[in-house]
UniProtKB/TrEMBL annotation:
<feature type="domain" description="CzcB-like C-terminal circularly permuted SH3-like">
    <location>
        <begin position="387"/>
        <end position="447"/>
    </location>
</feature>
<dbReference type="Pfam" id="PF25954">
    <property type="entry name" value="Beta-barrel_RND_2"/>
</dbReference>
<keyword id="KW-0813">Transport</keyword>
<dbReference type="GO" id="GO:0060003">
    <property type="term" value="P:copper ion export"/>
</dbReference>
<protein>
    <submittedName>
        <fullName>Membrane fusion protein, Cu(I)/Ag(I) efflux system</fullName>
    </submittedName>
</protein>
<feature type="domain" description="CusB-like beta-barrel">
    <location>
        <begin position="305"/>
        <end position="378"/>
    </location>
</feature>
<feature type="domain" description="CusB-like barrel-sandwich hybrid">
    <location>
        <begin position="179"/>
        <end position="300"/>
    </location>
</feature>
<feature type="region of interest" description="Disordered">
    <location>
        <begin position="35"/>
        <end position="118"/>
    </location>
</feature>
<dbReference type="GO" id="GO:0022857">
    <property type="term" value="F:transmembrane transporter activity"/>
</dbReference>
<comment type="similarity">
    <text>Belongs to the membrane fusion protein (MFP) (TC 8.A.1) family.</text>
</comment>
<feature type="signal peptide">
    <location>
        <begin position="1"/>
        <end position="19"/>
    </location>
</feature>
<keyword id="KW-0406">Ion transport</keyword>
<dbReference type="InterPro" id="IPR006143">
    <property type="entry name" value="RND_pump_MFP"/>
</dbReference>
<keyword id="KW-0732">Signal</keyword>
<dbReference type="InterPro" id="IPR051909">
    <property type="entry name" value="MFP_Cation_Efflux"/>
</dbReference>
<dbReference type="Pfam" id="PF25975">
    <property type="entry name" value="CzcB_C"/>
</dbReference>
<dbReference type="GO" id="GO:0016020">
    <property type="term" value="C:membrane"/>
</dbReference>
Length: 466
């Protein structure tokens, strides 16, 4: 007995029950009568009955719940789990009468087939599958009703430029090339210190301190003696050597020029700032004795700083030197600082699996400070158009990427693809799909489930053959 016969029998049974109830005048169920009447008017007899609360409880004939409510009739159009096969085809009439039945499959979509007509546990007839209903290739064939119910949509593969943004955190660091240290090269004494403290902004040539150094005084006296002598050229060469000795002691150029002009041995030397910047460290104290190598001041220029950005290891291949980067400081919402990638450090942090980039940032207002947290955005991609499909079209298992190509008339072909860059909701297709071919972009998982079901059914059917 096929589904159509069962459905007709069910309708007859309902009609008979209704007539009996009318004749007796007792026990009539308005709900059942209305539902049956509606189903009859729609010319869609129920194929089974389901619990009115939606529970997974079914019956092939009309049934009531323990509290007296009727089970809900379900027609073929309401059942989204099965395809609607014309009754004439199943019964052997119509167009189906000229085709050979290959096998019968479970009406609820389970991977169960039979070479002969059969019923499931609910009394529903197995659905006949004819030659030609399932193509011999790997395509999946869906009926128009199932395509509409599952929401399968397709879009053609087109060429477009893909741009994406890498977002990563970072910190502000000083430009190592813009840091100066003032240290003594000989034993010295600090006579006095200017009104400069840690955090003060100083200009190039601004006086920082005054020191006395016996070694500098001795070298200055020797230099004056040589340049004051009116002897041969050999003495002149010796004078140049004395001057070089003062330079080696790191005596400021201004102090050497004053010696050459006044011909006086200085008792103290004024020390000036070598650059514009902010005093990061002040070690000079009035009256202190300084040994060679002792650091008295450390000054840094903040007009140009570095942003050290940590990006994920997977994004490293998209980074190129000279790329533009936009940095936003959390201390200044709405402000953007733009710089360029100058260095990609040649190491990976083994704990965080990140790579470090150095972005050089102009900081004329000196708003960005040392160790400040920032967020960076780096735009990657090319302006050249590449073949793309929406990211939702790709079924990615990790080791395999595939799309379903819409071949028309409900036929969907699974096809392996090779992917490229991603961005803006699209992914580059380097191999597997031609330009203009439509691919499924929604309900892919349902199509994939149908594909797996088809493969299982084919395996069962082939295994049942003698």
């Amino acid at each position: 007995m096929n589904r159509a016969v069962l459905a007709c029998a069910g309708v007859a049974l309902i009609a008979a029950a209704g007539a009996g109830l009318v004749a007796t005048g007792a026990g009539r169920s308005p709900a059942r009568a209305d539902v049956t009447s509606a189903a009859a008017e729609a010319n869609q007899p129920p194929i089974y009955y389901q619990d009115p609360d939606g529970k997974p409880d079914y019956s092939p004939v009309p049934k009531k719940t323990p509290d007296g409510r009727d089970y809900r009739p379900v027609s073929a159009d309401d059942d989204v789990r099965v395809d609607k096969t014309p009754a004439a085809s199943v019964a052997g009439g119509g167009n189906g009468g000229n085709r050979k039945i290959k096998y019968y499959r479970n009406p609820m979509g389970l991977p169960d087939t039979s070479p002969v007509p059969k019923k499931d546990s609910m009394g529903m007839d197995y659905i006949a599958v004819f030659d030609g209903d399932e193509p011999d290739d790997d395509t999946v064939k869906l009926s128009p009703g199932k395509i509409q119910r599952t929401g399968v949509k397709s879009e053609p593969a087109v060429r477009r430029a893909i741009r994406s943004v890498i977002r990563a955190p970072g910190t502000i660091q000083l430009d190592e090339r813009r840091v100066s240290v003032i240290a003594m090269r000989s034993e010295s004494f600090v006579l006095n210190v200017a009104n400069v403290t840690t955090g003060s902004h100083v200009a190039k040539g601004q006086r920082l301190m005054e020191i006395y150094s016996p070694a500098i005084s001795s070298a200055a006296a020797e230099y004056i003696a040589t340049i004051s002598s009116k002897t041969t050229a050999g003495d002149g060469l010796y004078g140049r050597g004395s001057r070089q000795r003062l330079i080696n002691l790191d005596m400021p150029d201004a102090a050497i020029a004053a010696i050459e002009k006044t011909r006086n041995v200085p008792t103290s030397v004024e020390w000036d700032s070598p650059r514009d910047g902010i005093v990061l460290e002040r070690g000079a104290i009035e009256g202190m004795r300084v040994q060679p190598g002792g650091v008295l001041f450390r000054i840094a220029d903040h007009t140009v700083v570095w942003a050290l950005i940590d990006i994920a290891e997977r994004d490293l291949g998209a980074i190129r030197l000279g790329q533009s980067a936009t940095v936003r400081a959390r201390s200044f919402p709405g402000r953007e600082f733009t710089g360029r990638i100058e260095v990609v450090y040649p190491e990976i942090n083994k704990e965080t699996r990140t790579a470090r980039l150095r972005v050089v940032l102009p900081n004329p207002e000196e708003l960005l400070l040392h160790d400040m947290y920032v967020d960076a955005e780096i735009t990657i991609g090319s302006s050249a158009a590449v073949l793309t499909v929406p990211e939702s079209a790709v079924m990615d298992t990790g080791s395999r990427q595939a799309v379903f190509v819409d071949k028309g008339q409900g036929r969907l072909e699974p096809r392996d693809v090779k992917l490229g860059q991603r961005g803006d909701g699209y992914v580059e297709i380097r191999e597997g799909v031609a330009e203009g071919e439509p691919v499924v972009v929604s309900a892919n998982f349902l199509v994939d489930a149908e594909s797996n079901l088809k493969a299982a059914l084919k395996g069962f059917s082939e295994g049942s053959k003698p």
